[in-house]
Amino acid sequence: MQADVVVLGAGMVGVSVAVHLQKRGKAVALIDRRQPGEETSYGNGGLVQREAVFPHPFPREFAEIWRIAKNRSVDAYYHLSGLPGLAGPLFGYWRNSAPRRHARIAARWSTLIATCTAEHKALAEEAGATELLRPVGYLRAFTDAATMDAELEKAERARTLGVNSVPLTGAELGEMEPHLSGGFIGALHWTDPYAVDDPHALTMSYFGLFQRLGGQFALGDAATLQRNRGGWRVSTADGGTVEAAEAVVALGIWSTEVTGRFGYKPPLFGKRGYHLHFKPRGNASLSRPVASNGFLLAPMRRGIRLTTGAEFARRTAAPTPVQLARAEPIARRIFPLGEPVEPAPWMGTRPCTPDMLPIIGRTPGQPLLWCAFGHAHQGFTLGPTTGRLVAEMMTGDAPFVDPTPFQAERF
User: Fold this and answer.
1) What CATH topology corresponds to 1-57+99-131+195-268+353-411?
2) Nearest Cα residue to 184 out of 173, 192, 193
3) What is the average pLDDT value for the chain, to the nearest integer?
4) Cβ neighbours of residue 62 under 8 Å, at least 6 residues apart?
């Protein structure tokens, strides 16, 4: 198979890169070890998070650090065996979460987030999938006044960056979501995000657009990438090869296993997450995702998806869905969950960087090898944005977002 560009990784980011390159006249081959959209893109909370203008910081206050250190919380869990290998990246993450540093990082990050709904809408229109983008936003529901006040203050800061929200009383929350319980005193309705009740279907719709534009897909092992007559070659599962002048690495947490072979290994680390679907009891329903108590309940085609926060572990460690076990009884008090739909939880790993910004651009020392990874919690949200940005840089168009803060050379 011959191509102008080979894109490694067929999650939301890789598929979006492939679509945008194909639209700009490049012949693209998309390679993954699995079918498109079956890794981390599959398991998110089903949100295009326009409100996420402030990247998730590392806790700075002693009380919060101590709460997480006890390793009993719902939102964060760690393996002691995994901490030595994570010490360097986590220290950088903690350092960059200092208020002044975090504010500078957020200003750069928000330039990407500001584009996410428009870029998703544009691709969904071309793919014929706009019905998957539900403009209903999502809710953060609160049981204590201090947490609600802090979130309302955050919402006011986000409003200066063009993000809309509506505070709700407990009674107003009850009217909006009558099947919720749990003694909520109020909520914040982030109104700008899209809710997606089948994230995999959305990724596949963009993949279908890529194929209709003439793009090619093959199962293959990205670890076989090698230089080839000034370009690149990668092996496919059927024993063939793909040859291309340029390559894009969009492999999420596995990206550095490829780039490291060519001299670039940034301090990427993972935050693992889990989900499990439940049937709702009786006629119970949710009209939009609801976040509370360190987890998210999201209405999906398969049922109510319960998603967890962050787990820190060695990349090869066996799944330990401790947070799901902690969250489920609380979730059942909030919403009438029935039986699980799947026999076992799903697990994925969010690819994170110490400065909370993705790596987008040329690989240092390898001008024909491009990076598109490190989006942490927002790979699903920022896939189309990253796809367009990478394609514009690769084809010499003026980038619609300044790519400088995301360049690989910073690590």
Assistant:
1) FAD/NAD(P)-binding domain (3.50.50)
2) 173
3) 96
4) none
Tokens of 373: 């990874």
Where do we find the tokens 């598929």?
A: 15
Q: Where are the domains of the chain?
A: 1-57+99-131+195-268+353-411
Residues whose CB is less than 8 angstroms from the CB of residue 399 and which lie 6 or more positions away in sequence, other chains included: 389, 392, 393
In the predicted model, is pLDDT for residue 129 greater than 80?
A: yes
The predicted structure's pLDDT at residue 247: 98
Backbone phi, psi, residue 275, to 5°: -145, 160
Segment 245-251 mean pLDDT: 98
* Pairwise CA distance, residues 96 & 130, whole Å: 37
By C-alpha distance, which of 77, 100, 387, 367 is closest to 247?
367
Which stretches does DSSP call E strand in 308-399? 310-312, 337-340, 346-352, 359-363, 366-373
pLDDT band, residue 40 (cuts 50/70/90): confident
On the question of pLDDT at 38 being above 90, the answer is no
